[in-house]
Automatic annotation (TrEMBL):
Belongs to the esterase D family. This is Alpha/beta hydrolase. The keyword Zinc does not apply. Residues 1-23 form the signal peptide. Coiled coil: none annotated. Transmembrane segments: none annotated. Keywords: Hydrolase, Signal. Gene3D superfamilies: alpha/beta hydrolase.
Length: 288
């Protein structure tokens, strides 16, 4: 009798394990929608998240906007790390805008083409169209966001990681007035024999008026000995900070504010979440 009982229990357990699990609605990020914007023969999905207070329909409240590259990765991370501090009013609530890769193109091909500022023939994939992508953001995306949402046009942040960080540095060089805050996480400043770094050292940039906060973050382990291709990204980040700090010292207004954070025990693939929350907590601090 005891054996029969155990067999019955075992059968019931197997039936429970094999029973189909009822599918629930897929997880979604609250207050988020998406659109498709065209850039001539290219199209990009844009993810937009509104802060909780936006739902209150306060017609006099306008919001900073945080733009980010590599949306499929960065949008989820930034939304997650900012949700609690924004909801608890420890950080200014902001509209989050994620810019995805070109529709119908592989992520690698799209980001390598769109985020690199110069053409490097040693690469198998096309490079060097950062200026076109920056024009798309400036002339198509930002006007669309400002038209359809209650934004504060004087409070724009750009976030980029890796090649996206290189793109952010390019925006700072080419159109520094476009954003007030630049969050450059593990920027790939080594690209094309550091051509972009050389342009930052030029008199043209050194004499240009720049009013911005620049947060540079790099993982402790992003050294020549530990990175996959032997790039010393820690040294590059420190050199870049030194260039920007020198520019600020040479400027009478001294309106270029730069911070560098070397993130302890972080590799290239691990640095971004810490960079995102630390940089945004500086840019959007509720304590003015």
């Amino acid at each position: 009798m005891h054996i029969v009982y155990l067999l019955a229990v075992a059968v019931m357990g197997l039936l429970t394990l094999s029973a189909p699990v009822r599918a629930e609605q897929a997880f979604t990020i609250p207050n988020t929608s998406s659109i498709i914007l065209e850039d001539s023969d290219r199209s990009y999905k844009i993810w937009i998240k509104l802060p909780n207070s936006y739902q209150e329909q306060d017609p006099i409240q306008y919001y900073p906007v945080v733009y980010m590259t590599d949306a499929m990765y960065s949008f989820q991370v930034v939304s997650g790390v900012t949700r609690l501090p924004m909801n608890m009013r420890e950080m200014d609530q902001a509209i989050l805008v994620g810019i995805d890769w070109q529709e119908g193109m592989s992520p690698a091909a799209s980001r390598i083409r769109d985020y690199t500022p110069s053409s490097d023939k040693s690469w198998k994939r096309k490079t060097g169209e950062a200026q076109r992508h920056l024009n798309f953001i400036a002339n198509k995306l930002m006007p669309h966001i400002n038209k359809h949402y209650r934004t504060n046009p004087s409070q724009n942040t750009l976030i980029g990681h890796s090649l996206g960080g290189l793109f952010g540095a390019c925006a700072l060089l080419k159109q520094p007035q476009l954003f007030n805050h630049y969050l450059l996480s593990s920027p790939s400043l080594w690209f094309d024999d550091k051509q972009l770094m050389k342009q930052f050292r030029s008199a043209d940039f050194m004499l240009k008026d720049v009013n911005a906060k620049v947060y540079i973050a790099i993982g402790e382990y992003e050294t020549a000995a530990l990175t996959e291709y032997g790039h010393d990204m820690v040294a590059d980040a420190k050199a870049f900070q030194a260039i920007l700090s020198q520019k600020n010292r040479l400027s009478a207004a001294q309106t270029l504010n730069v911070r560098l954070q070397v993130i302890e025990a972080a590799s290239h693939n691990m640095a971004f979440p810490t960079a995102a929350i630390q940089g945004l907590s500086w840019f959007l601090s509720a304590e003015k």
